[in-house]
Amino acid sequence: MGLIERYRDRLPVGDDTPVVSLGEGSTPLLPAPRLSRRLGVELWLKWEGANPTGSYKDRGMTLAVSKALEAGAQALVCASTGNTAASAAAYGARAGLPVAVLHPAGAVASGKLAQTRALGARVLEVRGSFDAALAAARELASRGTHALVNSLNPHRLEGQKTAVFEIVEALGGEPGAVYLPYGGGGNTTAYERGLAELGLGNVRLVAAQAADRPGTAASAIRIAEPAHAARVSETRAVIATVDDAQILEAWRALARDEGIFCEPASAAGLAALMAGSGSSGRVVCTLTGHGLKDPAYAERHAPDARVVEPDPDAIAEALA
C-alpha cells in the first residue's frame, strides 16, 4: 500500500484524485545498537533509502504527481541535484507524463543521473548553480506548459510529512529528537508540519547542513541558497553545521557499525549528533538516500579490494 492510501485522511486528496504510486513509504525504522552504545543515546535510523527510487523524495512525489495529473498537467519539470530528478522521472513515467529535468553542470552524482536517464526523463544540464536551474524551472512552470514538482510544490511537503507519522507509530510514542540533512529545507519544514499535526511540540528537530554548502562532497545538500530558508527559520529546527570530514566519519560508522550503505548527505544528521549537539534519550536520525545514488563516493572512501590467488592458504593469509 502506498502512502496516499495509508494516510488518505491526512492528505489533500479526494475520491477523484488519480493515485500515482510505486508503493512508497512504510520504510524501516531500525535500531542502531552499536552507535547507541557509542553515543550514549537510544538511536533509531529512519531508512528512507528503502523507498522505490532510493530516496525520501518519493514520499512527496507520489502526491505532487497525483495532484498534477488531477489538475490536467501534460508534463512535469524540476530542478535537481539528483534525487528529485530520479523520483520525478519515475513517477512521471508511472503517470504517463513527460518529465524535464534541469540540473547544475557537473554537480550531480553519477548514480542519480543514470537512474533519471534510464527512466526516460529529458535531462538538461544548466550552465550554473542549482539555484539558477530552479529559477529556470519555475519560469518554465509559470508559462503553463509544465507542472513544477520541486519542494516549492506544497503537495511535496504534504507527502513528506508522513515520515513523521511512521516514526511515531513505529516507536509507539514520540522521540526526544529527530535529526535530518538540510539542503533546500523542504524536508525540515515537512517534518515540522508532521510534528505539529501530531501535537508533538517537545520534540527537538535538528537540521544538519554542510559547512561548505556550494562545494560539499555530499551532493544532495549542495545547495547554496536553500529555497525554504525563511520557512526553516520559523520552525523549531536547530541548525547544525558539519564539515565533509564529519559527514565521512558518520557515513563510515553507519556502514561498518550498522550495515547501512547510504549516500553521503544522508549521514549529515548523524554527523551532527556525533559532534555533540546536546540530545539525549531516544533519538531518530533520518537517512534520506541509498548509497548507490553516489557510487563514486564509495569508491573514493571505501577500502580497496585485494587480488589473491584462488588458493585457501593465500586467502587465509590475506584475511589475517
Model description:
The strands form two sheets. The protein has a six-stranded mixed beta sheet, sandwiched between helices. Strands 5-4-3-6 form a four-stranded parallel beta sheet, sandwiched between helices. Helix 3 (57-70) packs parallel to helix 4 and helix 11 (244-258) packs across helix 12 (268-274). It contains 14 helices and ten strands. The model has no long low-confidence stretch (mean pLDDT 95). Helix 4 (83-95) links the parallel strand 3 and strand 4 (99-104). It folds into two domains: 3-55 and 155-301, Rossmann fold (3-Layer(aba) Sandwich), CATH 3.40.50; 57-153, 3-Layer(aba) Sandwich (Rossmann fold). Helices cover 41% and strands 15% of the residues. The chain has 320 residues and is α/β, with parallel strands linked by helices.
TL;DR?
The protein has helices spanning 3-6, 33-39, 57-70, 83-95, 110-118, 130-142, 154-160, 162-171, 186-197, 229-233, 244-258, 268-274, 295-301, 312-319; strands at residues 29-31, 42-47, 76-79, 99-104, 122-126, 147-148, 177-181, 204-210, 238-242, 282-287.
Q: How are the elements arranged and paired?
A:
Layout: H1 3-6, E1 29-31, H2 33-39, E2 42-47, H3 57-70, E3 76-79, H4 83-95, E4 99-104, H5 110-118, E5 122-126, H6 130-142, E6 147-148, H7 154-160, H8 162-171, E7 177-181, H9 186-197, E8 204-210, H10 229-233, E9 238-242, H11 244-258, H12 268-274, E10 282-287, H13 295-301, H14 312-319
Helix pairs in contact: 3-4, 3-7, 4-5, 7-9, 8-9, 11-12
Total number of helical segments? 14
Q: Major sheet, described briefly?
A: 6 strands, mixed
Q: Shape from CA axes?
A: globular
Distance between the termini: 47 Å
Q: Name the structural class.
A: alpha/beta
